[in-house]
Design brief:
Elements (H helix, E strand, L loop, with lengths): L1 E4 L6 E4 L9 H14 L1 E4 L6 H9 L14 E2 L2 E8 L31 E8 L7 E5 H6 L3 H8 L2 E4 L14 H10 L3 E4 L1 E3 L6 E3 L5 E4 L4 H15 L5 E4 L6 E5 L3 E5 L10 E7 L6 E2 L8
Parallel strand pairs: 2-3
Antiparallel strand pairs: 1-2, 3-14, 4-5, 5-16, 6-14, 6-16, 7-13, 7-15, 8-9, 8-12, 9-17, 10-11
Bound molecules: succinic acid.
Length: 291
């Protein structure tokens, strides 16, 4: 096995490992160690079947069956969701064509955010369709001790609707209304401690609507500052996909964003498995924090 770092901030390519079959436990431990060290791992060139992707994922935890978004699931495989702009059989636009456009951590807007995600590329446009990853440990560690202390005492309101913005894609009012009913906002600590590495990370994204106990107006400037901070190029790795790449990231210390930088008449097709995480946070009744 060889390892090649992908950027200064985060990410490594793992070479010389056959991910299509069962992995010996010692190799799983080695990969886990690399995942904890680099946060994002890339494996190239495996034409994985759905079953092989699920089998790989099971080495690192229990695959989520995506009950929260059943219409994204691949037929016959509840452990897989398809993220694509490919038109469905009846010629309708795919509901996943703009999934992940805003910076986020998967299922952060729930009481059980995902531990990890494994994304495999099955079709690509000629150019673009990249995914960006931000190192949220570094985001925390590069703040002043004073701000770190303030943030460590705060909770933030995570609301999936906060990320629906014309900046990324026109929000679909029906989808937004359905999510308002099925995915009410939750409160999470702003600073998380990773259970395996013990490192602290900033748990904020573009799905955060405000700090608990602060007003929207009070929250916005600090959120804006922190957003600019964690998306600075020095903290980010931008993945330019090749066919049959598989990338696995750690949602406990990484934010990611899918870019719409490609010709929409060409197909981008990705399959994702998701690893269930620990329960976190508490429910919120409000959309905006009330002082
Ligand atoms: C996601 O947010 O899981 C989608 C990422 C991508 O399609 O690049």
């Amino acid at each position: 096995m060889k390892v090649r770092r992908l950027s200064y901030a985060l990410g490594a390519e793992v070479l010389g490992v056959d991910i299509t079959g069962p992995l010996p436990p010692t190799l799983v431990e080695e990969i886990l160690g690399l995942w904890h060290e680099h946060q994002v791992l890339l494996f190239r060139g495996a034409a994985l079947t759905p079953q092989q992707q699920i089998q790989f994922t099971e080495n690192f935890g229990e695959p989520d069956r995506h009950e929260g978004n059943p219409n994204f699931r691949m037929a016959g495989y509840p452990e897989l969701i398809e993220i694509t702009n490919k038109l469905s059989a009846n010629g309708k636009a795919s509901p996943t064509k703009d999934v992940g456009r805003a910076w986020h951590s998967d299922l952060e807007h729930t009481l059980q955010p995902l531990k990890g995600s494994v994304l495999w590329c099955g079709a690509l446009p000629d150019v673009g369709g990249d995914t960006m990853f931000a190192n949220m440990y570094m985001a925390f560690e590069t703040l002043s001790p004073g701000l770190q202390k303030t943030l460590a005492s705060l909770e933030a309101e995570h609301d999936v609707i906060a990320s629906f913005s014309p900046k990324y894609a026109p929000p679909d009012p029906e989808h937004v209304a359905a999510l308002r009913r099925t995915a009410p906002p939750v409160a999470h600590p702003v600073v998380r401690v990773h259970p395996a590495t013990g490192r602290k990370s900033l748990f904020l994204s573009e799905r955060v609507s405000g700090f608990v106990g602060w007003t929207y107006e009070e929250s916005r400037p600090l959120l804006q500052f922190l957003s600019e901070h964690f998306t600075q190029p020095e903290l980010v790795y931008r993945h330019q996909w090749q066919l049959h790449d598989m990338v696995m990231w750690d949602n406990r210390c990484v934010n990611h964003q899918a870019l719409g930088n490609y010709d929409r008449s060409q197909v981008r097709y990705m399959r994702r498995t998701s690893i269930i995480g620990e329960p976190l946070g508490r429910p919120m009744n409000s959309v905006l924090a009330v002082a």
